[in-house]
Design brief:
By secondary structure, this protein is α+β, with helices and mostly antiparallel strands. The chain folds into two domains: about 1-40, no CATH class; about 55-80 and about 110-300, no CATH class. It has eight helices and eleven strands. Strands 3, 4, 5, 6, 7, 8 and 9 form a seven-stranded antiparallel β-sheet that branches. A two-stranded antiparallel ribbon has the order 1-2. The protein is globular, with a radius of gyration of 22 Å. The termini are far apart.
Length: about 325
């Protein structure tokens, strides 16, 4: 006897997909329906142990600003250069149906607050000439701590290739000395204009960058998805690599910065001029001179960017 088939419109790129009734029931354990009535039956968000749910506005504040930190639709989509497509078979119907059911019925609450979008550059600390664009999607957990997932672009096909944690100067100074060696300073990224937050109003971006002055980041890249002079790996290979920040003019590959500016329609030089009045806020930071002398190009000091050791601290 021919198995009964019905056509059920599910979230698969806005096209109807024919799904065997029995298969759909098996795959989604009876929860996938052609409507969305089951949304009301979703379980409440699960909090991490010892964590309290923040008010609904916390994830969207920029150090007191009520506006959302990111409007990715306003930022041009940027396809990562030489981004690899992982090897593997094309998605099966079963996998697509499972994804559709998950979109309809499951929560993705930990990802929802990742609403701050910033783009900068990272050199690998053990190989500073290996440098890449870093697209940060972050959640400001509180005024002193943020957590970010890193991608090689901002389009749907971008690859997740790292993570970064951001702490305030206060939290950084509370770390053991040995741990501090893993945290890179941020003042140069901000004052040079290299760190940008595309798609939000200028006043909001300024407040975001002002709030990040004197902060530090701990960044691990887990997949070489391609960079100037470095062919991409087809899969995440080898150990995670500690990334650093550029702290002197000339350290970043000029072609890398120009390419980013062109694709995202931003102007690093103008950003630098606009942020000049943030220099008085900059205090000496740890790690500023960590990569000094390790680049093939001539480098020079960025005004306002000073290493703690050079300042006698």
């Amino acid at each position: 006897m021919r198995e009964q088939v019905r056509s059920c419109r599910v979230a698969l790129g806005h096209r109807p997909v024919r799904v065997h009734t029995g298969l759909a029931a098996l795959l989604l354990a009876g929860f996938l329906t052609c409507g969305q009535e089951a949304r009301a039956q979703q379980p409440a968000d699960v909090e991490a142990p010892g964590q309290h749910r923040a008010d609904g506005d916390r994830g969207h504040r920029l150090h007191g600003e009520p506006a959302r930190a990111r409007e990715t639709d306003a930022a041009p989509e940027m396809v990562a250069q030489a981004a690899p497509q992982p090897p593997g078979d094309e998605k099966s119907t079963k996998t697509s149906v499972l994804e559709a059911g998950a979109r309809l019925l499951q929560r993705t609450s930990p990802l929802g607050p990742m609403d701050i979008y910033m783009v900068g550059f990272h050199p690998m600390k053990d190989d500073p000439e290996h440098q890449m664009e870093a697209h940060h999607f972050c959640h400001q957990v509180n005024e002193d701590f943020a957590q970010c997932v890193l991608f090689d672009g901002n389009g749907k096909g971008a690859n997740l290739n790292g993570i970064e944690y951001i702490v305030s100067e206060k939290l950084f100074e509370s770390l053991p000395d040995a741990e501090k060696a893993s945290w890179h300073p941020h003042n140069a990224e901000i004052l040079s204009g290299q760190l940008v937050a595309p798609g939000i109003p200028t006043v909001a971006e300024r407040e975001l960058m002002k709030g990040k002055m004197n902060s530090y980041g701990k960044t691990w890249h887990v997949w070489n998805t391609g960079a100037p002079g470095h062919a991409p790996d087809p899969l995440p290979l080898g150990p995670a690599r500690l990334a650093w920040s550029f702290n002197r003019d000339g350290e970043a590959d000029p072609a890398l910065v120009e390419q980013r500016d062109r694709k995202l329609d931003v102007d690093t030089a103008r950003m630098r001029q606009d942020r000049a009045d943030l220099q008085p806020l900059a205090r000496p930071q740890s790690g500023v001179d960590a990569l000094q002398g390790k680049f093939s190009r001539p480098t020079s000091v960025i005004p306002g960017v000073v290493d703690q050791k050079a300042a006698g601290r």
